[in-house]
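lol forgot to send this yesterday, sorry. C-alpha cells for the thing we talked abt
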C-alpha cells in the first residue's frame, strides 16, 4: 500500500498570527486518517508551526532549500538549518521556483541530492506548461523533468521521494486536469520510473496531483488508482477547505 498524502503548500501567504490560527483550526478539525497530512508554511514561520503542531500528527515541510552545505549564499536556507528545527521534509522544483526564480533541472537535481543525502523527504514537483500540452509534448516534458531531476538517484534513495505532478496550466487558475488526464499522466510517470529502475520502486512511490484541487473535485481526482493524494495551494489556506480535501482521500 502506497502512502496517501495531502500536503498544503501555503506559498508566500500567512503571517505568524495567521499561521498559528490556521494550524490551531487544522489541529482541531483534521480527522483521524491514515493519510499523511503536511503543511508547508513560509520559512520564517516553520519553527512556530513545529511548536503549534507538537501534539499533532500533521507534518511540517519547507517550500524550498539550497543545495550547499553552508556558505556565502545570501538569503538562502540549508538542509541542516531545516533539520535543526525538526523540519525534514522539503518541496523541491515547484513550477513557481522554476519559472520565477530560474531553477533549472540541473540545479534541482543538486538540491534533491543534498536533501536525500541528509535523509530528508523530498516532494519533487514537475509538470508541463499549457503550450507543451497543446502541442502534445506533455509526456516528453515530464519524462525529461523526471530524468534530469531525479534519475541520478539510486533505487534505494527513492524511499525519500514523493512526486507531485502539477501541470502549470492548472496551478491557481481554477482549471483542473480532469481525473482522466491526471490518471493518464500518473500512470505514465509510474511506467517511466519502472523502466528506469524497476516496478517495485515505481509501485512504492506516492504520486500527488496538484493544480486547483478543491473540496468539489478532490474525491474524483483521488479516486484514480495512480493518484496517491494532492499538493494543495489556494485551498490549503482555509481550514474548512483543506479538511474537506483531507477527508476526500
Ligand atoms: P493551487 O491549488 O492554488 O492551484 O496551487 C497548486 C500548487 O501549486 C501547489 O503546490
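and heres what i got for the seq, position by position
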Amino acid at each position: 500500500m502506497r502512502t496517501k498524502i495531502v500536503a498544503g503548500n501555503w506559498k508566500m501567504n500567512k503571517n505568524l498570527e495567521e499561521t498559528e490560527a490556521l494550524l490551531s483550526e487544522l489541529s482541531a478539525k483534521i480527522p483521524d486518517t491514515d493519510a499523511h497530512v503536511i503543511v508547508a508554511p513560509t520559512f520564517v514561520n516553520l519553527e512556530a508551526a513545529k511548536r503549534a503542531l507538537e501534539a499533532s500528527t500533521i507534518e511540517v515541510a519547507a517550500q524550498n532549500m539550497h543545495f550547499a552545505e553552508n556558505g556565502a549564499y545570501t538569503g538562502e536556507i540549508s538542509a541542516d538549518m531545516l533539520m535543526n528545527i525538526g523540519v525534514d521534509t522539503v518541496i523541491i522544483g515547484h513550477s513557481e521556483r522554476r519559472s520565477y526564480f530560474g531553477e533549472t533541472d540541473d540545479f534541482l537535481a543538486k538540491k534533491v541530492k543534498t536533501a536525500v543525502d541528509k535523509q530528508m523527504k523530498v516532494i519533487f514537483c514537475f509538470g508541463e506548461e499549457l503550450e507543451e500540452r497543446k502541442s502534445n509534448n506533455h509526456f516528453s516534458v515530464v519524462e525529461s523533468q523526471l530524468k534530469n531531476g531525479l534519475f541520478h538517484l539510486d533505487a534505494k534513495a527513492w524511499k525519500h521521494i514523493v512526486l507531485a505532478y502539477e501541470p502549470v496550466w492548472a496551478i491557481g487558475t481554477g482549471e483542473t486536469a480532469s481525473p482522466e488526464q491526471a490518471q493518464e499522466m500518473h500512470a505514465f510517470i509510474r511506467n517511466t520510473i519502472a523502466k528506469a529502475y524497476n516496478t517495485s520502486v515505481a509501485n512504492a512511490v506516492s504520486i500527488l496531483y496538484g493544480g486547483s484541487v478543491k473540496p468539489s473535485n478532490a474525491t474524483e481526482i483521488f479516486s484514480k488508482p495512480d493518484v496517491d493524494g494532492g499538493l494543495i495551494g489556494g485551498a490549503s489556506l482555509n481550514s474548512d477547505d483543506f479538511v474537506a480535501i483531507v477527508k476526500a482521500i
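The beta strands are 5-9, 36-40, 59-60, 89-92, 121-126, 161-165, 207-210, 229-232. anyway ping me if u want another try
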